[in-house]
Amino acid sequence: MGKNIANTTHTFFFCDGGSCQKAGSEKVVREARAYLRNNELWDTTHTIKTRCNGRCEDAPTCIVSPGEFWYKELTPEKITHIVKGHLNNECPIETELLYKKGWDKQVSNNERAPITPKPFELKNDTELGACFITKGFSSDQYLYPLFLYLKENPDGVTLTMTNQNSIEFNDIESLEYSKKHTLELFTKTTCIPLTIAAVPKDNKELQQAKISSTEYFYKKESQQVGIRFKNKFGEVLGKIAFDSIANKGWEYCRKIQLKNAILNLT
User: Fold this and answer.
1) pTM of the predicted model, to two decimals?
2) Dist. CA 242–CA 217, nearest whole Å
3) Cα four-point dihedral sign 92, 96, 99, 102
4) What is the mean pLDDT of each run of 10 residues along the chain (266 residues)?
5) Where do the structural domains in the chain lie, given as residue ranges?
6) Residue 175: in which H helix or E strand, if any?
7) Which among 98, 109, 27 has a CA at the least distance from the CA of 68?
8) Which CATH number fits domain 5-100: 3.90.190.20, 3.30.70.1060, 3.40.50.920, 3.40.30.10?
9) CA triple 12-15-21, angle to 5 deg
């Protein structure tokens, strides 16, 4: 039988993303759970492992509820002190906090500048010719939303994968991202698999199939706009074409995917 959540007073959300794992999050979780069980606090608290909390530079991290208390750079020794503070005194350990509700800024020892796409740059591309081009993001956290948006706003958008016939996004009836590495696009007659998630480094077949580079371009002479996908070896996997620079999908790419990257055509 699962835990009766109605009886819990505090919940500890431990990040279990890759960076936190490398920084020792499992030892932190084990120490917290051992303390709770040995002090008869197991039934009135809950510990949850989450996926990435988005603060890799402060790994390992934990969020405590009630309240909104974010803790950083945890160790087994620190987490016991933090758990005691919240359960015994309702008192956060402020010296270990990254952020709490009411603060106007977070306190990190390892703050990183946000990564943003560079402005479009005029290049003479061997395939595209003279064009303005910039790189976007290629993780599944960007690629899945991209394909989902274009499926929902398909007018004037065409997908062409290497060695396959072009398809209009209007012909895509559904998409599904339930497999470990692969997003699937379904038309009435076919399924187009796209490898968008992180894949094992020793699996060359998956490495060749994975979208590792996402380039947005504006062709100078034809004024065609689109996206080109490549793998880590520089091989072209496919392209998306928009019917005009005013296309709703292209405007979405500029605003959301590229965070308003500058395209200066003069």
Assistant:
1) 0.82
2) 11
3) positive
4) 88 95 97 97 96 94 95 97 91 94 94 90 95 96 97 98 94 95 96 94 94 96 95 97 97 96 81
5) 5-100, 121-257
6) strand 174-176
7) 98
8) 3.40.30.10
9) 130
